[in-house]
Design goal:
The structure is a single chain. It is built from eleven helices and eight strands. The chain is an alpha/beta fold and about 250 residues long. It has one domain: TIM Barrel (Alpha-Beta Barrel), CATH 3.20.20.70. An eight-stranded parallel barrel has the order 1-2-3-4-5-6-7-8, surrounded by six helices. The model has no long low-confidence stretch (mean pLDDT about 95). The protein binds 1,3-dihydroxyacetonephosphate. The site of 1,3-dihydroxyacetonephosphate has 14 residues, from strand 8. Belongs to the triosephosphate isomerase family. This is Triosephosphate isomerase.
């Protein structure tokens, strides 16, 4: 954790969930309301088709709703794409940009991600900007270099701690059950913090840096206790309310 920074636990449902999954959203809202704890912010980034209904179910109080991608433009001839303004209109307060699955499946570059982050800010939603190395890059000793380069290239100049969240997600840890050692997480998060401070000063000191990749209820407390880890971006374990709530509970007081 970073002193004075409110942690965030954000779920990323990826391409999972139809209307039948709204019961999980309601159960998460009930669980968070019952616990009454305000130590962390909680968010679910659901498929675009669910944002409106999930936002209605969340009611805005204890659970924020986010999207998982946006187009850089506000509107126009871009069949199948969704703008940040549309996400906001549907009830999203944040959007993930530059997830490794987008970088890989859709060839998104740092420049693409930077434009999408700027689009999120234009629409008044928080950009959750993802960075992280592949297994091969980690094995070649390139984790620091790759993460730094992605960070430098994916964030527009007018970043603030309010309009942005950084998520470090080593690609090889996503959905694999593999997690870097605590020391390795600490090293990359310290590197990200240093670079953010060097470029953005006080805003970089306060910006939230999440860890993502195989976070479960069993390892969340240990990971959240690491310096400069200000919460998590949770994939598989955010799909079930009980798992997600247990991870929210793991945030230290
Ligand atoms: O990609 C992730 C979140 O964006 C992490 O996914 P898992 O938690 O399923 O490893």
């Amino acid at each position: 954790m970073t002193p004075g920074v409110k942690p965030l636990v954000a779920g990323n449902w990826k391409m999972n969930g139809t209307g039948a999954a709204l019961g999980e959203v309601r159960a998460i809202v009930e669980g968070l309301s019952a616990s009454g704890s305000a130590v962390a912010d909680a968010m679910l980034c659901v498929p675009a088709t669910l944002i409106g209904r999930a936002a209605d179910a969340a009611g805005g109080a204890v659970l924020e709703i986010g999207g998982q991608d946006c187009h850089a433009k506000e509107s126009g001839a871009h069949t199948g794409d969704v703008s940040a303004e549309m996400l906001r209109d549907a009830g999203a307060s944040a959007v993930i940009v530059g997830h490794s699955e987008r970088r890989t499946d859709h060839g998104e570059t740092d420049a693409t991600v930077r434009d999408k982050a700027a689009a999120a800010w234009r629409a008044g939603v928080t950009a959750i900007i993802c960075v992280g190395e592949t297994r091969e890059q980690r094995e070649n000793g390139e984790a620091e270099r790759v993460t730094s380069a992605q960070l430098d290239g994916s964030i527009p100049d007018d970043m603030t701690a309010g309009n942005t969240v950084i998520a470090y997600e080593p690609v090889w840890a996503i959905g694999t059950g593999l997690v870097p050692s605590n020391d390795d997480i600490a090293a990359i998060h310290a590197l990200i913090r240093d670079r953010m401070e060097a470029r953005f000063g006080g805003e970089g000191r306060k910006v939230r840096i999440l860890y993502g990749g195989s976070v479960k209820s069993g390892n969340a407390a240990e990971i959240f206790a690491i310096d400069n880890v200000d919460g998590g971006l949770i994939g598989g374990a955010s799909l079930k309310a009980a798992d997600f709530l247990a991870i929210c509970d793991a945030v230290p007081d």
